[in-house]
Amino acid sequence: MNNQQELETYIKNVDQSLEKFRENLKVIHKHEEDKYNEAEDP
Predict the structure, then answer these.
(1) With bands split at pLDDT 50, 70 and 90, how would you rate the model's confidence at 29?
(2) Cα dihedral angle (34, 30, 24, 21), rounded to 10 degrees?
(3) Using the 8-state DSSP alphabet, how is residue 36 labeled?
(4) Distance from C-alpha of 27 to C-alpha of 12, rounded to nearest angstrom
(5) Spatial distance between the Cα atoms of 24 and 30, rounded to a whole number of angstroms
(6) What band does 39 get if pLDDT is binned at 50, 70 and 90?
(7) Residue 3, φ and ψ in degrees, nearest 5
(8) Does the N terminus or the C terminus of the chain have fewer Cβ atoms within 10 A?
(9) How far apart are CA 29 and CA 38, in angstroms?
(10) How far are the Cα atoms of 36, 37, 39 from residue 42, in angstroms, in the given order?
């Protein structure tokens, strides 16, 4: 495997990890909003 291929594979993996991270952040953000909204309601 040459360096170019390794780099492309690495970048692809980082990209996928970022994608998962973004999805998790959306879920966390939604959850926090729901908690906040519940706290607002008497």
Answers:
(1) very high
(2) -140
(3) H
(4) 23
(5) 10
(6) confident
(7) -60, -40
(8) C
(9) 14
(10) 12, 10, 7
Confidence at residue 1, expressed as pLDDT on a 0 to 100 scale:
59
Name the more confident of 10 and 36.
10
Tens of pLDDT, residues 6-24: 999 999 999 999 999 999 9
**Token pair in block for residue 19:** 């994608």
In a 10 Å sphere around its CB, with 0-12 CB exposed, 13-18 middle and 19+ buried, how is residue 22 labelled? exposed
**Token digits of residue 7:** 């780099």
The structure's pTM equals 0.66
